[in-house]
UniProtKB/TrEMBL annotation, chain A:
GO terms for biological process: transmembrane transport. The lineage of its organism: Bacteria, Pseudomonadati, Pseudomonadota, Alphaproteobacteria, Hyphomicrobiales. It comes from the Bacteria. This is ABC transporter permease. Belongs to the binding-protein-dependent transport system permease family. It comes from Hansschlegelia zhihuaiae. Its main location: membrane. Residues 65-245 form the ABC transmembrane type-1 domain.
Length: 264, 283
């Protein structure tokens, strides 16, 4: 068991070493007088690494990380709250759900990038336009899952709870709510991921801070090293958040036999 | 929760005529509309009673409407005609006086076994600590003291049924509706569970409606066995008092010559009636 996971880790590290090795050789060793990966377009691993270290040492990065994190969390919380509320409401009011169905589908079908400029127009270049973009993404994931969660409550479990003497409020608390939450949590990775995508894309399209801004700024001056450093930090950031989500999920969904049902 | 008074467990099984009627079905008929078009008459007008403290089994071929009758008695399903009386009162809405052990799994999967049992008391205002304590006691009585912290998917089918039983009994309902509670169990465990049920029942003698496919099990446990014909238009085709002495052992009673005589009598009648039903249907 331990040996197997060590072996896996070794293989995973090997992949990174090989990839960086190819990158390094391609960008700094001329083959037949030509660089396979010209530095201007691909930078070099060492430069990128130095840039990442510099960003952290100078402390410049923290502000950007903080902004992106704030936007992500706000988008997630607001989007989830909205999704849960509306999801519940629609699930318990079939008429309303039927009336709004085509519009929900319409809005959800819209690629969110086209909304970014409008949000900037409405909310300015600060964090709220990014939060809004994230919310439009998170909301639908959570909404669909909560709606499903309430709809899919087993009729037998429901009858059993009724026979037990539960009032409508108790049914909500002990049956509908946990069922809806379990569906919502099962899509936690997706919705947190979407919150982050909203934040970064928003920053990228117009802002003065955040990881998206950092990458965009570097691109503006053809600073490929800066772009790669930004991307590297962004992926590391995503990995950390994803890991945290996994921890939360493990705690909250102990009662679930199988892996969570993904959305989108 | 006050404790129901314990009655003498070895009381003779035949109830005195004076015992109050716990459940009365009066001309209950159930028809289902299938996808808004065809009407399916599942249960023909049916009448029968269960007296207080009486253990009645309902036996019949699959699909004859046993679960349907229990659903009607529980107030989960409105009969198309006729009505249900519970302790002399006409039933409207849910039947709050009864506990219902469903044929399918009905535990809340997001609660542990213990919480599933405790919630049945909490819902009625028992403080959580007290409810948990009582639930622990009931988990012990159904032989699952070590499984309190398990979730439904971590229990076997039979264990889930037992948690369900504890969940229903902890409320001490005056009427107990059980739909094939021992369905997924092997013959051996069925008998152990049968004895467990008889023991629990002897404590406060609820009125029981017990659905099963197994005629022997029905005879071993009950005061009366009601036989239903095959559907559609299922109806009661036999109602047999079982005058075997109590307390009984669900396994040993099967060796009793009286048990054999009863079994043969009911089985003969059942066969005859079923044949008749088919002849009528063929005409
Ligand atoms: N919601 C429904 N809509 C249409 N028909 C139904 C519905 N529920 C039950 N039925 C029909 O009513 C009849 C009786 O069903 P029921 O579930 O009561 O049978 P049962 O005696 O409990 O069978 P089993 O022993 O297999 O559990 C069946 O023929 C079934 O197809
Ligand atoms: Mg049934």
């Amino acid at each position: 068991m331990r040996a197997a996971s060590l072996k896996l880790l070794a293989l995973q590290v090997l992949v990174a070493v090989v990839a960086i090795g190819i990158w390094h050789v391609g960008s700094s060793v001329p083959i037949a007088g030509k660089y396979f990966l010209p530095e201007f377009f691909f930078s070099t691993p060492l430069d990128v690494f130095q840039r990442v270290v510099k960003l952290f040492v100078s402390g410049e990065i923290w502000r950007h990380l903080w902004i992106t994190l704030t936007e992500t969390l706000l988008a997630f919380v607001i989007g989830s709250a909205g999704g849960v509320a509306i999801g519940f409401w629609f699930a318990r009011q079939p008429l309303i759900a039927a009336v709004f169905d085509p519009y929900v589908k319409m809005v959800n079908a819209l690629p969110r990038v086209v909304l970014a400029p409008i949000f900037m127009l409405w909310l300015g270049l600060g964090i709220w336009s990014k939060v809004a973009l994230g919310v439009t993404l998170v909301f639908f994931v959570v909404f669909f899952n909560v709606y499903q969660g309430v709809k899919e409550v087993s009729p037998v479990v429901l009858s059993n709870a009724r026979m037990m003497g539960m009032t409508e409020r108790q049914l909500f608390r002990h049956v509908y709510w946990p069922s809806a939450l379990s569906w919502m949590f099962s899509s936690l990775h997706t919705s947190v991921g979407f919150a982050l995508v909203g934040a970064v894309v928003g920053e990228y399209l117009g802002s003065a801070a955040g990881l998206g801004y950092l990458i965009h700024e570097a691109e503006g001056v053809f600073d490929v090293t800066g772009v790669f450093a930004g991307m590297f930090i962004l992926s590391a950031f995503v990995l950390v958040i994803d890991w945290l989500v996994t921890l939360v999920e493990r705690r909250l969904l102990v009662w679930r036999p199988q892996a969570a049902v993904g959305q989108t | 929760m006050e404790m129901a008074a314990r009655r003498e467990p070895s009381r003779p099984s035949a109830e005195p005529e004076s015992a109050a009627t716990a459940v009365r079905l009066d001309g209950v008929k159930v028809s289902f509309v299938i996808r808004g078009a065809a009407v399916f008459d599942a249960v023909a007008p049916t009448s029968f009673e269960v007296r207080e403290g009486e253990f009645v089994s309902i036996v019949g071929p699959t699909g004859c409407g046993k679960s349907t009758l229990l659903n009607v008695t529980a107030g989960l399903l409105k009969p198309s005609a006729g009505h249900v009386e519970i302790f002399g009162e006409r039933l409207a809405g849910l039947n709050r006086k009864s506990g219902y052990l469903f044929q399918q799994d009905a535990l809340m999967p997001w609660k542990t076994a213990l919480d599933n049992v405790a919630i049945a008391l909490e819902v009625h205002g028992t403080p959580r600590k007290e409810a948990l304590e009582a639930a622990r006691g009931w988990m012990g009585r159904v032989g699952l003291a070590r499984f309190c912290e398990r979730y439904a998917h971590e229990l076997s089918g039979g264990q889930r049924k037992r948690v369900g039983l504890a969940q229903v009994l902890i409320r001490r309902p005056r009427i107990l509706l059980m739909d094939e509670p021992f369905g997924p169990l092997d013959a051996q465990t069925r008998q152990i569970m049968g004895n467990l049920l008889l023991g629990l029942w002897a404590e406060d003698r609820k009125a029981v409606m017990f659905v099963t496919h197994d005629l022997e099990e029905a005879i071993a446990l009950s005061d009366r066995v009601v036989i239903m014909s095959a559907g559609p238009d299922a109806r009661v085709i036999g109602d047999h008092p079982i005058d075997l002495a109590r307390p009984r052992d669900a396994a040993e009673i099967r060796l009793d010559p009286k048990f054999h005589a009863l079994h043969k009598r009911i089985w003969d009648q059942l066969r005859e009636e079923v044949a008749k039903t088919y002849e009528e249907g063929a005409r």
